[in-house]
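sanity check this chain:
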Amino acid sequence: MAGKFYNPGAQGSELSVVETYGKYGTTSCNIIHPCSGKQLMEALKKRLSLKDDSLQLFGIFLGGLDHQVLLFDDDAQIPIGQKLSLSRVPSDIKLEAKLIAKDDVALHLLFAEAKHAVDTGLIQPSDEQLMQLEDYLDPMFTVERQYLELAQQCEGYGTYVFHNCFINNSTTKVMLKIMPNCLKVENEIGKISYHNIKSWVLDERNTAHTVSFDVIPPGGNPYLLLVQSSQVSLINKLVNMYCRCLAIELNIIPPKMPERVMGRYVDPLVSFVNSLYKPRISFDEV
């Protein structure tokens, strides 16, 4: 999908501008086009002094921090003249803790993103947690590591929000949240544990722009959750990444993604994980 924004006739040195959270603000890199996602990430690594291992915590997105449309793969060609942003991608909290212990730049980026999420209400700490977070921001002794570690324990950490989604062909716009352990539709459907999703299909053909989830709730009837959005590619990618985090937690190797055929494929990842694992998370507990 990223390729369609790329002009193969434009070659040479170009200035790519990437929005980031925190003190680094808008960062510019002089890169040679055509440029892949991996090459731009390498340029950002040098520009920001990120360590190699920390790159897995971040992704380059099409769109600014306020409206990200898709996440570029390593081999995707980066578009010229489009707004780009760098932010956290789904990852295991234990891995984050391990990597930021050795990388102050990665720590600051994750801290700044978490602070923004707290400030905007995406992360919802308890009153006690909020008081402690505010203490960590005291200008006399701001402690980014302690702030981030506490934010990681709060409700909403690692959540991605998509506004203006249409569910099951309804004409009413709703909000969809991609969370570390579930999807959440802000209507009567509510939360859906990844353990209750058998598979899903992404369809980007023509104007479809849909992703459909085959849901089998425990003790309930199977149903199809159809999501329509201009951001379905990103929704699909984030769900896949969180499910792969689950696979890593279970010490299993997830299957490779099937090749996309005409913009449509079925992802069997959750079904594969669940075939080896009795869910510890019930439908009511997520």
In short: Confidence is low (pLDDT under 50) at residues 1-10, 258-266, 276-286. The radius of gyration is 19 Å.
